[in-house]
Write a structure and sequence with these properties.
The longest helix has 17 residues. The strands form 3 sheets. This protein has an 8-stranded mixed β-sheet with strand order 8-9-5-10-4-11-12-13, sandwiched between helices. Helix content is about 30%, strand content about 20%. The radius of gyration is 22 Å and the shape is globular. It is α/β, with parallel strands linked by helices. Bound molecules: adenosine-5'-diphosphate and magnesium ion. The site of adenosine-5'-diphosphate (ADP) has 18 residues, from α3, β12, β13 and α9.
């Protein structure tokens, strides 16, 4: 039997959540096609409730493609997380990041542009593609991850078995969350400055038992001050995403932000820009786009700084509502969720 034709048939099997075919998703391994027998491994990156229905679709696709031969189809399902290469050359204090593959900082030059919304929904979208994800909310001035994930009031446990205090992250939606917000009284303003703020912030990343992760996202506080520089220097980040709105006119501020990562002592790649609140489309007029904050401001900035524009995310009422409810929009799909899924796909491509 022609193995190419078997592959062709399997290309027609789409993973309903990951929305790609199983060949493109690298889920098929050791494919063998002999007379009257097709055999392969169907590999899932994490336990998947859809595995048996996908397996059935594979059988059907093959039988449909070879009605005359009607081969026996043997599929071995297995769950196998991608192996993470242990990080080498870690500095003292970075041990908890030894099994974290990619660390991505989410930054912005000012508050309120949707940095946390992007961070939380990107975490969910990456997790839905089968990756192991953690998010450190290091915004010491306005930690919003507990609220956005419905984990307010949770109190992380501390593991002292190594003689050092290591904080255990809160797990929800299959993602590991850590936030300075878990350690402060509700509504109490944070007035940390200078070294105290940067230490608290670093703890949210370095003193947390992350275990094995494909992606660790860091929600940085807005701005580009000394605190940021010290943090970016001390955490082995793989790359940074800058979030803006189309309205962000303060070119000089963005430039400062870029220079913070590109500075020769720091030298961390900015992997791209996310333009948030790009336009508004009312549900009753799905064809209309209203550019409330101006059009393509983020796109132009990305061009100016010669970095990719990773996404334009529309203003969607359910993004705001779900943020307030603690059920991120990316879980539910729809117009909001779709934009974050596209962003996740771009990130996955970059680090493939
Ligand atoms: N694309 C969007 N559509 C609708 N509301 C949004 C969108 N992005 C952010 N918001 C809302 O705007 C507010 C500020 O977002 P937030 O993520 O907290 O910003 P930041 O972390 O940059 O301060 C929140 O209420 C959030 O729900
Ligand atoms: Mg925020």
């Amino acid at each position: 039997m022609d193995i190419k034709r078997v592959e062709e048939a399997l290309k027609g099997v789409i993973h309903p959540v990951r929305e790609k075919d199983i060949i493109t998703l690298n889920m098929v391994e050791d494919l063998k096609a002999e007379e009257g027998l097709v055999k392969f491994k169907l590999v899932f990156p994490s336990p998947d409730p859809l595995s048996s229905s996908i397996k059935k679709s594979c059988e059907k696709a093959i039988l449909d493609a070879f009605p005359a031969e009607s081969p026996k189809v043997v599929i071995m399902e297995l769950v196998r997380a991608r192996k993470i290469e242990k990080r080498l050359n870690l500095e003292l204090g970075q041990e908890q990041l030894a099994n974290v593959a990619h660390i991505i900082a989410i930054s912005s030059t000012k508050g309120g542009v949707g940095k946390s919304t992007v961070a939380v929904n990107l975490a969910v979208a990456l997790s839905q593609e089968g990756f192991r994800v953690g998010l450190a909310d290091a915004d010491v001035y306005g930690p919003s991850v507990p609220k956005m994930t419905g984990t307010e009031g949770e109190m992380p446990m501390v593991d002292n078995s190594s003689g050092k205090d290591i904080i255990l992250p809160i797990e929800k939606f299959g993602i590991k969350w850590m936030s300075i917000g878990y350690f402060v009284q509700n509504g109490q303003p944070l007035i940390w400055r200078g070294p105290m703020a940067s230490n608290a912030l670093k703890q949210m990343v370095l003193q947390v038992k992350w275990g094995e992760l494909d992606y660790l996202l860091i929600d940085l506080p807005p701005g580009t001050g000394d605190i940021h520089i010290s943090v970016v220097q001390d955490i082995p980040i793989s790359g940074a995403i800058v979030v803006t709105t189309p309205q962000e006119v303060a070119l000089a501020d963005v430039e400062k932000g870029m220079n913070m990562f590109r500075n020769k002592d720091i030298s961390k790649p900015v992997i791209g820009m996310v333009e948030n609140m790009s336009w508004f489309t009312p549900e009753e007029l799905p064809g209309n786009r209203y550019y409330i904050f101006g059009q393509d401001g983020g796109k132009r900035l990305a061009e100016k700084f010669n970095i990719p524009l990773l996404a334009q995310i529309p203003i969607v009422m359910s993004i705001r509502e779900n943020g307030d409810l603690g059920t991120p929009a990316a879980i539910k799909g729809g117009a909001g969720g779709e934009a974050f899924k596209k962003l996740a796909d771009k990130i996955i491509d970059i680090y493939r």
